[in-house]
Every structure is written in structure tokens, then in C-alpha cells.
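Now for today's protein:

——
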Amino acid sequence: MFRFYPAAALLLSGAVAPSLLAAVPDVLDEVVVIAPADITVARDRVAGNIQFADADQIEKSQTLDLSDFLSRHFGSVNVNHAQNNPLQPDLNFRGFTASPLLGLPQGLTVYQNGVRMNEPFGDTVNWDLIPLSTIDSVQLLAGSNPVFGLNTLGGALTLQTKNGFNYVGSAIEVYGGSFGRRVASIQTGGNSQGIGYYVNADYFEEDGWRDYSASDAIRLFGALSARGDRASGDVSVTHAQSGLRGNGASPEQLLEIDRAAVFTHPDITENRLTQVVVAGSLALSDTMKMSGNAFYRLLDTDTFNGDGTIFEACVFPDGEFLVEDGFIDSNDDDACNFTDDEAIEPVLDQHGNRIDAEIAGQPQDAVNNIGRRTQEGYGASGQLSGKYDFGARHNTLLFGFSINRGGTSFASQTEVAQLLANRATSRTGIFADEFRTSIDSRVSTASLYFSDSLDISPFITATYSGRYDRTRVELQDRSGQTPKLNGNHSFSRFNPALSATFRVAPTMLLYATLSESARAPTAVELACASEDAPCSLPNAFLADPPLEQVVATSAELGARGEFGKMRWHLGAFHTINEHDILFQTTGGAQANVGFFANVGDTRRLGVELELSHPVGRAEWYLQYTYVKAIFEDEFIINSPNHPALEQGTSDAIVGDGKLRVSRGSVIPGIPAHQANLGADYSMGKRWSIGGDVSFRSGVYLRGDEINELEATEPFTVVNLRGEFRINDKFKLFARIENVFDAQYETFGLLGEPDEVFPQFSESGFFGAGPPRGAWLGIRAHW
């Protein structure tokens, strides 16, 4: 079942290279969540890298949201600013991504109270809908753990929210400062005679540090809980709305002029979420427990993206009209003329008429991609766990099932528009009919899983686990224009895992694990898998050739323990993704037109190190990660904006807009080196100060999979925070981020800036990091 590789054999034979990792608090000495529905075992019996934080640590960090907290306080976690909106980051762990953006290969699962947060249409994760103030604990379990189901290629993030039993009291927090940011939250919880309640309201608003980037979000959460001697139950309700403006990466030459400037705008995403979760557990005996949940989730997403045009102006005998890009320029004059050129396809409007290239004397040199998707999901899961002793040998066994269904109604249209002086787009009411999309998709997954941990001796615990998933994806065209979309796709697989822990000393533990997990192609990938019919993300879908599911095989070896009061962890990991899926661009000003394709295998090999140590009134942590993320197979990629094609000197050129990616090329967007250093110091009963430093090495640009261009520059960001306790109820707090106002870019891609700025010749677009910012607030507990 497992596929072994030389590097994996090396790991399992004991060749561990040094690295750095994340701080783990005392609670992990007790239990670790090992399954979606909150089944726990002692940490010493779990093989792998586990990172944990509770509500107190989250509050002390003064971070903006969950992704911000993870990137600064958990090892091997990195975020980039692809959208340049703080609530829309791409979160990356060990080279695997959880992002709100369609088009990225997703590789992490996120669970909240045992319910999967990855959306059904593209496995995306909407960080803006998860308020940090509601979280009681967060755990990141590394590796391809099959028990957590589809998409757990690199790890599983599990969140537990507050309720009336783990949060008693009330609190208000308000702060504001740079970028016009204003944040407030209020929460209250308590319990009486086995019944508890918890209510939270969280609000975020800012103007943004970039031009035209105002955003807001309001999140409401409530939970009603019951606790008895042998049974417990919880009902939670979430309602959230957000309006996010993330105007994307900017051309390199524009950033040199003004780092706050945007390429085109607006780029608006509006989310509205309603979710209900019912969960419960029952102790059948002193050694056996049954638990489960059921959920309903409704998410409406509206998008409006103003962008440079995807059409060309073409001269016809009776006027100048818009045509589709890709005509044959027979006379090589870089212009379209119906008389001289070939393969000309006029763009027709919703009434079947050709669209004028100019309206009222103004060129129609922009488009508005307008989309709406409604994602409705529901499902249930159940687990039966038992703990049995065979003499002195402890055994923990669990069986579980889950059934999840998700339906998506997707509609989009492309409006021709004029690019205004401030690079906003106009509204014309003229829509390109062929680019109108209306599809339904249904994704259903049924799963069975198990895990058995047995103490072979007082010092050795072995665990065998596995999961069988069967996924069905149905697509149906509702527009009548793209019948090729209609289709049914089925994927099934059993994924196993085998691991062991070895206690070699009272304060030192070794572990080793070998595991598999998989992800089925998502509906968005299957709907956009043809090079001959490329799609404009996140809107137009035109064809659905089959894609292979991605299978991750992971090997991991490590050690953790204590030296005095110092905690440490040292580990190495190796993951191969078979049939990895990549979005290949065929054009678009910001490379957002293209298709999904299997590109062969990819490899992620890395080492991690963690140190943490309390010293008197101070405590510090250090984390370092090295990740070598490469393409394991040679393949041909579409990258029409790569400078090598214009220069014509690269050996990688194999055709018009096509490049050969060599085996061993580095995957763009993943930093090879990343490190976090943090410390907190208590200056008595009233004052405390702290800070953290993050270092990230440079990354290759998306579109430069051949690695012939320079990577982004490495960068270091320093953040400071402080707190003053007025009395037992009130605290003042302040933080400064990017203290030295470093100018840095977290990622890049290749695009066509001359579609908007004819004088720009460099094809690089970059996601700029935010400048220095400062915030002051007050927090009240009672």
C-alpha cells in the first residue's frame, strides 16, 4: 500500500537533520486530539509534531486573526499576501496550503468542533469567518494523517470553541489605530446545574493600508451546552458577514512608485455564513465512549473583480469590435484586422450582437468578472472509542464514520468596461454572452475510519490507523451553453498509517510514522481542466476532462523532550504527492486565466526544530524550519508571461507560451527557510512586554516554475506588544507591527502589467507586506 522512496528510507533509518519548531504548552503533556470528533489520548502515545495553544496564549499574542497567530507562534507556518487583505491570506504549512482563493492546490484540513471547514466547491478555507475571540484551543497536527480525511496532505488544524463550561464570565475588548482599523468584541458565558451558555460578537473594520482597500466583518457565535455525569451535548450557531477588498498583487514598477497603489480595482468578496452544529457524547461504560455531531452550513459568496480586458479590439469593414484573444496575426503587425488576420472570434453581447470596441468615444479596455456562489453543506459523523488493558498494556481503539454532502450553485458573467483614470472599472451593462456561466455541483463523501494504539511495552506504543473515503462529484450546466460540463466523477481510496513512539528516557521520546492521505479533485478543478477551454478564476468554467486524485505518502521521524525547564523538539519529514494538481495560466493581466492539470509528483522534504524555555519572569521560544519543495517529474507548463519567451534564449522553451519544467525545480511560493523568535517578560504585577521576530527566505514567482528568474528578497519583521493592568478587571494593551518599517514582498507571480500600464516592461507582480502599524486598546474582564 505504501510507496517507499530513498529519502523516506533514510528518515526511517534514523538520519535526522537539525531544524526548528513551535512552542507546545503543558496541556499537550496530557491529551492530543487524534480524530475529528474530539477523541483524545495522552501526548506520549502520539507519534508526530503537535502544536497547541489555548485562549490565554491567543489573547496574550494580540494577533489580528487565526492565520496571523499561527504564522507568528506555530512553527513551519507561513502566510503570504496574495490578495493584500489581512483576512484573506494564503496559509502555508510545510509547503501545503489552506487558502480562501480558488486556484491554489489545497492540502490542509480545518475542523471546528469536529466539523470540516473546507468549503465543498474548492476545499477553500475562509479565515474571515473564524473569529479569534471565540477559540478556546487550537491544535495543528502535522503529517498525512488519514483519520482526518480528504485533503489532509500536510496536516490537520482542529479548533475548539468556547462554551459555558470552559469560559465563565464576561469580557469586552476594543482597539484601534493604523490603517483606520477598528476592532471590538464582547463575550459572555456561564453555567448552572449542568446547563451552560456562551455568546460572542466580534467586529472588524479598516480602511486598509493600500488604496481602495476598505473591509469589514461581523461574526456572531452562540453555544448552549449541557453536562451530566456520563453525557454531554452542545448546540452552536454561527452567523457571519464580511465585505473584503483585496486588490491583489501589484506590478514591480508600480510598487517602486507607490507601495500603497493597486493595479486595478475593485476586487470585492462578500461572504454571508450561517452554520448550526449539534454535538454530543455518551459514556457507555467506564472505558467506552460514543460521540458525534451533525451540521448544516450555508455560505453565500458574491465577487466583483475589475480587471484589465481579456479581449482585443479588431477592425472590421463596418467598424471596430471586440474579439477573443488568440486570433492569428497573419501579417505580424500586432493588431487585429478582419481582412488581414485569421481565426477571429467576435465577442457577442447578451442579445447576440457584436460589442463595440469603443462606447461614447471611450475604449472598452477592462472587464468586470461578477460571480455568485451559494454553497450548502450538511452531514453527520460518529465515533466509538474504548480504552482496554491487556495486563499492563494499554490499548485505545476507535471507529468512526462521516457522511458529508455539499451543493454549490455557481453563476458568473463578464461585463465589458472602461478602465477609469484611477484604474477602477466602469459599469456598462454589456455582458459577453459566451463567458456567462451557470452550473450546479454536488459533492458527497462517505467515510469509515479507525485507529488502534497499543502499548507493546511500558516504553513503546504502536498505532495503526486507516480511512476509506468514497467521493462523488456531479457537475451540471444550467446555462445550456457548456454541456461539456455535465458529468459524474467518482473517487475512492483506503489510506493507512503506521506509527510508533519510543520513550528512551523519562524526559525524552522518539517517534516514527509512515502514512498516506488523499484528496479528490474539487468541483472547481474538474470544471476547469481543459487547456482548450481555459477559465477565468474565479468565474468562468467551460470543460471537465477527468483528473486523478492526489495521494500523499509521508514519512516522519523525530524526538521531543525536556532538558531542565527547556522543552525541545527535533524532527524531519518527507512527503511525496502523486498526481499533484496545478493551475496553469494561459493569460490574463494577473495570470488568472487558465486550467487545472495533473503535473506528476511533487516532493516536500524538511527538518524542524523547536526550543522554548521559561526563565524567571520571562519565557522565550525559537522555531526554525527548512523545506525543500520540488517538482519530482518533468512536465510542460503554460506560462505565457515569462520573460524567457520574449528573449527566446532559454532551453526550457518548447512552444508558444510553453516551458519545460525540469525534475528538481523548486515549487514557487514556498520559502525554504523560515524562523520565529519570541519572548514575553513580566515586569511585576502590572506591566508586561513581549515581541516576536519572523524571518522568511525568498520564494520563486508563480509562473517561474523553471526557476530562471530571481526569487523575492528574504525579509525579517519585528513586532512588539505590551500590557498594563489597571486593576483586576481592566487592562490597557498596545502593539507595534513591523517596527522597523521593513519593505518586503511575501510572494510574486508573472502577469501582463502593460495591459494597464503600457510603459511597464517588467512582468513581475508582487504581494507587498504591510508597513509599520500601531494599535492601542482596552480589555475588560469580569
Q: What stands out?
A: Residues 6-13 form the longest helix (8 residues). DSSP finds six helices and 46 strands in the chain. Residues 79 and 91 are 5 Å apart (CA to CA).
